Amino acid sequence: MKDTEHMNEERQLALDKIADNDHEIYALLKQRYSPRVFADTKVTDSDLNRLFEAVRWSASSSNLQPWRFIYARNGTDSFDKIVSCLSDFNKKWAPEAPVLMLTAYKEKTDDGRDNFHALHDLGLSLGNMTVQAQYMSIALHHMAGVDWKKAHEVFDIPDGYHISTAVAIGYYGGPLDELSEELREQETAKRKRNPQGEFAFKDEWGQ
Asked: Which residue ranges does the record assign to the Nitroreductase domain (predicted)?
């Protein structure tokens, strides 16, 4: 059982990570953040089914649904294979996650044309999964640091599909003292976002 000090630390971290938004947004979006430490709580088959059901009902261009996923639980050979494909930095913390997942997309349409929107649609599906996970108090940490070429070899990915990212999945919580000092600093750092004026332009670019 967690001691009171760890529980208070986790609650405070969760409060500190709530977005300091300029305009009111949906509570689940404000609460979402990407931890590198997770609670000692099993992510069940039912949990994963609900996450993938959220993906299933994501929007996609021409309803092609180009997303694909490989996931594995901690303690399995497949989990270790995913770890082997991660960047050195992500190997410092991700091996403790309850579940790891590789994301991929189908590069072409069924009639052989390049699907320019496939990566966009994969992102949309992960957005759906992220909000569903937040509703369930499950955290997702999306990782760009993955050797996709190695992942293709290790998992024998068929031609026409492309590994994109990795994701660590687990319930929020877990003692920060399990992390190195460097990672603890990143975990507790104040969240920062660019102001809207830097990316949302009215009428013409840059305005």
From this structure: 29-171
Gap between the Cα atoms of 125 and 129, Å rounded: 6
Q: Token pair 């937040």 is at which residue? A: 134
For 35-173, CATH number out of 3.40.1710.10, 3.40.109.10, 3.40.50.300, 1.10.10.10 equals 3.40.109.10
DSSP letters, 128-179, are HHHHHHHHTTEEEEEE--B-HHHHHHHTTPPTTEEEEEEEEEEEB---GGGS
Low-confidence ranges of the chain (pLDDT < 70): 1-17
Amino acid (one-letter) located at 1 = M
pLDDT at 1: 47
Q: Which neighbouring-strand residues pair with 71?
A: 101
The answer to whether 72 touches 97, Cβ cutoff 8 Å, is no
Number of CB atoms found within 10 A of residue 140's CB: 23
The Cβ-side half-sphere exposure at 48, using a 13 Å CA radius, reads: 17
